[in-house]
Design goal:
Length: about 210
Amino acid sequence: MAFYDKSCKEFVTELASKAPVPGGGGASALVGAVGTALGNMVGSLTVGKKKYADVEEDIKALMVKGDALIAELLKLIDRDAEVFEPLSKAYGLPKDTEEQKAEKDRIMEACLREACSVPMEIMEKCCEAIDLIAEYAKKGSALAISDAGVGVAFSKAALMGASLNVFINTNSMQDRQYADKLNSRADELLSKYTALADEVYDSVYKRLKK
Protein backbone atom coordinates (compact mmCIF):
# COMPACT_ATOMS: atom_id res chain seq x y z
CA MET A 1 0.00 0.00 0.00
CA ALA A 2 1.27 3.46 -0.90
CA PHE A 3 1.94 5.71 2.08
CA TYR A 4 -0.57 8.26 0.83
CA ASP A 5 -3.24 5.57 0.78
CA LYS A 6 -2.80 4.84 4.48
CA SER A 7 -5.05 6.29 7.14
CA CYS A 8 -3.79 9.31 9.09
CA LYS A 9 -3.32 7.05 12.11
CA GLU A 10 -1.33 4.46 10.16
CA PHE A 11 0.88 7.09 8.58
CA VAL A 12 1.80 8.87 11.80
CA THR A 13 2.38 5.55 13.57
CA GLU A 14 4.89 4.53 10.91
CA LEU A 15 6.39 8.02 10.93
CA ALA A 16 7.00 7.72 14.69
CA SER A 17 8.64 4.31 14.36
CA LYS A 18 12.32 3.51 13.77
CA ALA A 19 11.58 2.49 10.17
CA PRO A 20 13.69 4.53 7.72
CA VAL A 21 10.61 5.58 5.74
CA PRO A 22 8.48 7.59 5.79
CA GLY A 23 10.63 10.38 7.17
CA GLY A 24 10.96 14.13 7.07
CA GLY A 25 10.78 14.33 3.29
CA GLY A 26 7.56 12.37 3.02
CA ALA A 27 6.08 14.25 5.95
CA SER A 28 6.94 17.55 4.25
CA ALA A 29 5.23 16.42 1.06
CA LEU A 30 2.11 15.50 3.04
CA VAL A 31 2.05 18.82 4.88
CA GLY A 32 2.48 20.62 1.55
CA ALA A 33 -0.47 18.70 0.13
CA VAL A 34 -2.59 19.62 3.15
CA GLY A 35 -1.61 23.28 2.82
CA THR A 36 -2.52 23.27 -0.85
CA ALA A 37 -5.82 21.56 -0.08
CA LEU A 38 -6.66 24.36 2.35
CA GLY A 39 -6.05 26.80 -0.47
CA ASN A 40 -8.49 24.89 -2.64
CA MET A 41 -10.95 24.93 0.24
CA VAL A 42 -10.93 28.71 -0.09
CA GLY A 43 -11.64 28.27 -3.77
CA SER A 44 -14.52 25.87 -3.11
CA LEU A 45 -16.08 28.35 -0.70
CA THR A 46 -15.71 31.19 -3.21
CA VAL A 47 -17.03 29.65 -6.42
CA GLY A 48 -20.73 30.21 -6.94
CA LYS A 49 -20.96 33.26 -4.69
CA LYS A 50 -22.43 36.34 -6.36
CA LYS A 51 -20.12 38.59 -4.39
CA TYR A 52 -17.11 36.98 -6.09
CA ALA A 53 -18.56 36.51 -9.58
CA ASP A 54 -15.93 38.78 -11.12
CA VAL A 55 -13.08 36.51 -9.95
CA GLU A 56 -14.86 33.16 -10.36
CA GLU A 57 -12.95 32.12 -13.48
CA ASP A 58 -9.65 33.04 -11.83
CA ILE A 59 -10.58 30.96 -8.79
CA LYS A 60 -11.57 27.99 -10.93
CA ALA A 61 -8.21 28.16 -12.70
CA LEU A 62 -6.44 28.24 -9.33
CA MET A 63 -8.39 25.18 -8.21
CA VAL A 64 -7.28 23.21 -11.27
CA LYS A 65 -3.66 24.07 -10.48
CA GLY A 66 -4.24 23.21 -6.84
CA ASP A 67 -5.69 19.80 -7.66
CA ALA A 68 -2.64 18.99 -9.77
CA LEU A 69 -0.27 20.16 -7.03
CA ILE A 70 -2.02 18.07 -4.39
CA ALA A 71 -1.75 14.96 -6.56
CA GLU A 72 1.93 15.62 -7.25
CA LEU A 73 2.78 16.20 -3.59
CA LEU A 74 0.98 13.04 -2.51
CA LYS A 75 2.97 11.02 -5.06
CA LEU A 76 6.17 12.57 -3.73
CA ILE A 77 5.49 11.03 -0.29
CA ASP A 78 6.16 7.59 -1.78
CA ARG A 79 8.78 8.81 -4.21
CA ASP A 80 10.80 10.15 -1.27
CA ALA A 81 10.67 6.73 0.39
CA GLU A 82 11.76 5.07 -2.87
CA VAL A 83 14.90 7.18 -3.22
CA PHE A 84 15.87 7.08 0.45
CA GLU A 85 15.84 3.32 0.93
CA PRO A 86 18.84 2.66 -1.38
CA LEU A 87 20.76 5.39 0.47
CA SER A 88 19.99 3.86 3.87
CA LYS A 89 21.32 0.52 2.58
CA ALA A 90 24.40 2.13 1.03
CA TYR A 91 25.51 3.43 4.44
CA GLY A 92 25.89 -0.20 5.52
CA LEU A 93 28.12 -1.31 2.63
CA PRO A 94 31.53 -2.70 3.65
CA LYS A 95 34.64 -0.54 3.35
CA ASP A 96 37.33 -2.88 4.62
CA THR A 97 39.44 -2.76 1.45
CA GLU A 98 40.33 0.07 -0.90
CA GLU A 99 38.17 -1.52 -3.59
CA GLN A 100 35.19 -1.76 -1.24
CA LYS A 101 35.70 1.80 -0.09
CA ALA A 102 35.83 3.09 -3.68
CA GLU A 103 32.70 1.13 -4.59
CA LYS A 104 30.86 2.37 -1.52
CA ASP A 105 31.84 5.96 -2.31
CA ARG A 106 30.58 5.56 -5.87
CA ILE A 107 27.25 4.08 -4.78
CA MET A 108 26.83 6.60 -1.97
CA GLU A 109 27.37 9.55 -4.30
CA ALA A 110 24.76 8.26 -6.76
CA CYS A 111 22.28 7.57 -3.96
CA LEU A 112 22.84 10.99 -2.39
CA ARG A 113 22.09 12.71 -5.70
CA GLU A 114 18.90 10.71 -6.09
CA ALA A 115 17.90 11.30 -2.47
CA CYS A 116 18.27 15.06 -2.99
CA SER A 117 16.13 15.10 -6.11
CA VAL A 118 12.79 14.46 -4.40
CA PRO A 119 13.03 16.98 -1.54
CA MET A 120 14.15 19.54 -4.13
CA GLU A 121 11.00 18.75 -6.10
CA ILE A 122 8.92 18.99 -2.94
CA MET A 123 10.43 22.44 -2.35
CA GLU A 124 9.50 23.53 -5.88
CA LYS A 125 5.92 22.31 -5.44
CA CYS A 126 5.59 24.05 -2.08
CA CYS A 127 6.70 27.30 -3.72
CA GLU A 128 3.99 26.84 -6.32
CA ALA A 129 1.52 26.25 -3.49
CA ILE A 130 2.56 29.48 -1.75
CA ASP A 131 2.07 31.41 -5.00
CA LEU A 132 -1.34 29.78 -5.36
CA ILE A 133 -2.46 30.56 -1.83
CA ALA A 134 -1.27 34.15 -2.17
CA GLU A 135 -3.85 34.49 -4.96
CA TYR A 136 -6.55 32.81 -2.90
CA ALA A 137 -5.85 35.22 -0.04
CA LYS A 138 -6.32 38.18 -2.39
CA LYS A 139 -9.34 36.97 -4.34
CA GLY A 140 -11.06 34.33 -2.25
CA SER A 141 -14.01 34.55 0.10
CA ALA A 142 -13.33 36.62 3.20
CA LEU A 143 -15.21 33.98 5.18
CA ALA A 144 -12.45 31.47 4.38
CA ILE A 145 -9.47 33.79 4.81
CA SER A 146 -8.26 31.90 7.88
CA ASP A 147 -7.93 28.76 5.76
CA ALA A 148 -5.65 30.64 3.37
CA GLY A 149 -3.53 31.66 6.36
CA VAL A 150 -3.30 28.11 7.67
CA GLY A 151 -2.59 26.80 4.18
CA VAL A 152 0.29 29.18 3.58
CA ALA A 153 1.73 28.42 7.02
CA PHE A 154 1.65 24.69 6.24
CA SER A 155 3.20 25.25 2.82
CA LYS A 156 6.01 27.30 4.35
CA ALA A 157 6.65 24.59 6.96
CA ALA A 158 6.74 21.95 4.23
CA LEU A 159 9.16 24.05 2.18
CA MET A 160 11.48 24.46 5.15
CA GLY A 161 11.21 20.81 6.09
CA ALA A 162 12.05 19.62 2.59
CA SER A 163 15.07 21.93 2.49
CA LEU A 164 16.61 20.17 5.50
CA ASN A 165 16.33 16.89 3.63
CA VAL A 166 18.29 18.48 0.80
CA PHE A 167 20.97 19.87 3.09
CA ILE A 168 21.54 16.67 5.07
CA ASN A 169 22.30 14.88 1.81
CA THR A 170 24.39 17.58 0.13
CA ASN A 171 26.41 17.73 3.34
CA SER A 172 27.64 14.18 2.66
CA MET A 173 28.41 14.63 -1.04
CA GLN A 174 31.97 14.44 -2.27
CA ASP A 175 31.17 16.44 -5.40
CA ARG A 176 31.13 19.81 -3.67
CA GLN A 177 30.44 21.74 -6.88
CA TYR A 178 27.20 19.81 -7.40
CA ALA A 179 26.34 20.08 -3.71
CA ASP A 180 26.88 23.83 -3.73
CA LYS A 181 24.64 24.16 -6.79
CA LEU A 182 21.80 22.36 -4.99
CA ASN A 183 22.37 24.31 -1.79
CA SER A 184 22.26 27.61 -3.66
CA ARG A 185 18.99 26.67 -5.37
CA ALA A 186 17.45 25.58 -2.07
CA ASP A 187 18.59 28.79 -0.36
CA GLU A 188 17.16 30.85 -3.21
CA LEU A 189 13.75 29.20 -2.84
CA LEU A 190 13.81 29.56 0.93
CA SER A 191 14.72 33.23 0.78
CA LYS A 192 12.02 34.16 -1.71
CA TYR A 193 9.15 31.97 -0.60
CA THR A 194 9.41 32.04 3.18
CA ALA A 195 9.23 35.83 2.83
CA LEU A 196 6.18 35.58 0.55
CA ALA A 197 4.50 33.08 2.89
CA ASP A 198 5.11 35.41 5.84
CA GLU A 199 3.67 38.31 3.87
CA VAL A 200 0.51 36.34 3.08
CA TYR A 201 0.18 35.07 6.65
CA ASP A 202 0.66 38.57 8.08
CA SER A 203 -1.98 39.99 5.73
CA VAL A 204 -4.45 37.32 6.92
CA TYR A 205 -3.54 37.95 10.54
CA LYS A 206 -4.11 41.66 10.22
CA ARG A 207 -7.47 41.16 8.50
CA LEU A 208 -8.62 38.87 11.30
CA LYS A 209 -7.27 41.02 14.15
CA LYS A 210 -8.67 44.37 13.02
